[in-house]
Specification:
Helices cover 44% and strands 17% of the residues. It is of the alpha/beta class. The protein has one domain: P-loop containing nucleotide triphosphate hydrolases (Rossmann fold, 3-Layer(aba) Sandwich). The protein is globular and about 55 Å long.
């Protein structure tokens, strides 16, 4: 199973959603990989912590290898690294990966991530792909490589308007590049149940028959604490309401 977590809007919690679902997957016994495509490296820092702990090979090395026939040949698994958590691995990002975008586009390397994932399927039961907050080469590569797409959504009007453009881009990608890709659902993140606006926006999306998932992930400072400790919620605070919401979301997605 390959799941991409994607939204063109920043600040909606893509990395938090990807890493915490992946951690729950790993704890359930599945061999799980997080691929970090974002030059901001949020998922990488979330799982590996301080920069001194970053491994030598990362996603920029893989993409660089696709540009050079003279590059040393590596196995797909060589780019993946164990975390401190059982069954959970990461293919880390690097700020320099953004510098490769124009070269990769000009050389038509849009399916190279899919090729990599096909090789990694024999090593992992679940692959989660974290994307940059833009519809660019890297996010399109992820959509071409994935089987399922999960859209984190925060309930404000700007996010709602951006969502329509995102869904259009997703459907165009399905038609042109990856007919197997399924829009798995829109996950309402950082939800504030006592506010009236989120409920109105969610109702508007449901009226338009967009696939809003039932689980609501609440806003909580516990997420920032989890980032600071570089420890996913299921390991840091397994009984917290935010953790339980992610467990519920994972169950909804797996049903």
């Amino acid at each position: 199973m390959r799941r991409v977590v994607f939204n063109q809007k920043g600040g909606v919690g893509k990395s938090s959603v990807a890493v915490n679902l992946a951690a729950i997957s790993a704890q359930s016994g599945k061999r799980t990989l997080v691929i970090d495509l974002d030059p901001q490296c949020n998922s990488t820092h979330y799982l590996l912590g301080d920069d001194s702990d970053l491994p030598e090979l990362d996603i920029s090395d893989y993409f660089e290898s696709t540009l050079s026939f003279s590059a040393s040949v590596k196995q797909a698994s060589d780019y993946c690294h164990a975390t401190l958590f059982e069954n959970l691995h990461i293919l880390p990002s690097n700020p320099e990966v953004g510098d490769l975008q124009s070269k990769l586009e000009s050389r038509h390397k849009i399916y190279k991530l899919r090729d990599l994932c096909e090789q990694l399927d024999e090593h992992y039961d679940a692959i989660y792909i974290d994307t940059p907050p833009a519809f660019n080469f890297f996010s399109l590569s992820a959509l071409c490589a994935a089987e399922r797409c999960l859209i984190p959504f925060d309930c404000d009007e700007f996010a709602r308007q951006a969502l329509y453009s995102l869904v259009h881009n997703l459907r165009e990608t399905q038609a042109d590049h990856n007919e197997k890709l399924v829009l798995e659902g829109i996950v309402v993140n950082q939800f504030q149940p006592r506010a009236s606006l989120p409920a109105k926006i969610i109702a508007s999306l449901e009226e338009q028959e967009l696939p809003v998932l039932k689980t609501r992930v609440p806003a909580s400072v516990k997420m920032k604490e989890s980032h600071l400790e570089a420890k996913p919620l299921i390991y840091m605070a397994p009984k917290h309401k935010l953790t339980l919401a992610f467990v519920e979301l994972f169950g909804e997605l797996e049903d």
